[in-house]
Design goal:
Radius of gyration: 25 Å
Helix content: over 70%
Distance between the termini: 27 Å
Number of domains: 2
Oligomer: single chain
Number of strands: 2
CATH superfamily of the largest domain: MetI-like
Strand order of the largest sheet: 1-2
Strand content: under 5%
Order of helices and strands: EEHHHHHHHHHHH
CATH class of the largest domain: Mainly Alpha
CATH topology of the largest domain: MetI-like fold
Largest sheet: 2 strands, antiparallel
Shape: flat
């Protein structure tokens, strides 16, 4: 049987009489091919950037003392993995930062969702409290790190508090807006059918706001990491921020970049996990085919 789907560029073009199964198979094939092309370009760009960086360092186009090199950074990471740092195992420092970030992320996310949904459903309360929320949100969160360290000390609580405050306002704002953007016709229909306020919130409001909430969760974990690291940078005895502080004090460029790469890897891993969780929780939503152009 002759092919019923032709291709123009990357997008499939179908002849008359093409079956739904053939159309779906052609679209999935185009999506897979596009995925491979994107991955190849990403790998190529990364290789080009690292290669140019290494070349510039070797030829002294840039000063290796300040900019290090990919090879030097890889060696430092390998030394940390194999022998640990001067202040302890790499996994100990990474575990400290992850503990601080995860606790702050969980508490901040749950609190942000609860407060955002509650105020989104209560217009009077949101009008009363809005000025205070805006005033607190206007404060740059990182400047709170010295205050938390001064009040709570150098241990876990001060880092968790900063991670919490970094996460809370991001999640709160999206949850609040998601509730406000809920379909009013669906809410009215639910009330006509006799749904209570709790049933409307659970079965209409929350599913409608879920996209907004997950959009905030995707970026809020990176804010939790930032909060934990900034707190460690200001004052701590362990953690990735502590390693950055030590590397800064000793002008160890390779150590600085190695710590940054660790943070990037952890954050990207958390983003991947969050995507899996979102896809599992929101399987009820209609699947949207990605653009294959």
């Amino acid at each position: 049987m002759a092919n019923t789907a032709l291709e123009a560029g990357n997008a499939p073009i179908f002849r008359a009489g093409t079956s739904d199964a053939e159309i779906e198979a052609a679209v999935l094939k185009a999506m897979r091919r596009r995925k491979y092309v994107v991955a190849a370009w990403q790998a190529g760009l990364l290789a080009a950037i690292l290669g140019l960086w290494q070349l510039a360092s070797d030829l002294h186009w840039i000063d290796p003392f300040f900019y290090s090199s990919p090879y030097g950074i890889a060696l430092r990471l390998w030394d940390w993995v194999r022998e640990g740092t001067e202040s302890g195992s790499l996994w100990f420092h990474l575990g400290v930062t992850m503990e601080e970030a995860l606790i702050g992320f969980v508490i901040g996310s749950v609190t942000g969702v609860l407060v955002g949904v509650a105020l989104g459903r209560n217009k009077l309360a949101s009008d009363i409290l809005s000025i205070y929320i805006k005033a607190i949100n206007s404060i740059p969160r990182v400047v709170l790190a010295p205050i938390f360290v001064m009040i709570m000390g150098l241990g876990l609580p001060s880092k968790v508090a900063l991670a919490f405050i970094m996460v809370f306002f991001v999640v709160f704002a999206n949850a609040f807006q998601g509730v406000r953007e809920a379909d009013r016709n669906m809410i009215a229909n639910a009330r006509i059918l006799g749904a209570s306020n709790w049933q409307v919130t659970r079965n209409v409001i929350l599913p409608s706001a879920m996209g907004w909430i997950f959009a905030s969760l995707h970026i809020s974990f990176s804010f939790a990491i930032i909060g934990a690291i900034v707190g460690e940078f200001v004052g701590s005895l362990a953690g990735i921020g502590y390693l950055i502080s030590i590397a800064k004090g000793t002008y160890d460029a390779a150590g600085l970049y190695a710590a940054i790469i660790l943070v990037m890897v952890v954050t990207l891993g958390a983003e991947y996990v969050m995507t899996l969780v979102e896809n599992r929780i929101t399987r009820w939503r209609p699947q949207q085919h990605m653009d294959v152009q």
